[in-house]
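Supplementary Note 3. Input sequence used for the single-chain structure prediction.
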Amino acid sequence: MRFLPLIVTVGNALVFPYYIIWLKNVTLTFSLFAWMFALHSFAAALGYQLCVKKSTKSIHWIYAMYALCFIFVGLSSFWTFDYTYATVAVQIVLGFTQGYFRAWHVHQLFYTLHAVSNYLLVGFAMLGLSFIHIVTPQFILFVFGCLLFITFLYATIHHIIRTKKKLAR
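The predicted structure, written as discrete structure tokens, is reproduced below.
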């Protein structure tokens, strides 16, 4: 259970270049691209502040938020609607969850281990991904979103079982 945050951290670092490609394609202009990243940054600052003030122990819902955003982005090539409004929502949710998750993660006992493992895993995984030329960015984001959704289900079930055991005592 303690390595689940590492999946989110490494996965976000891996899919970020693919997300940037998707974001660049849907925004069409550099100004709009910059505005989208400004929204992401402001939402991340808000998420960080809320986590610091709330100091919650359980964050399994973060996996679901990430998963929904990445699955949405992965499926976006199949939908026909105005991407700008959807992109604003995705940027705000991703920014908020990223800030919240970072604030939570910094205060964990295994943060140092995760930081070192993160750099090593991202390095090796990026080397591996560099050999893939056929897969589209949306497909990689969709697969990562599905992995995060499975992680969310596992964390939720684990949380429910742990809560029932505490109540049984």
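DSSP finds six helices and no strands in the chain. Residues 4-168 form one domain.
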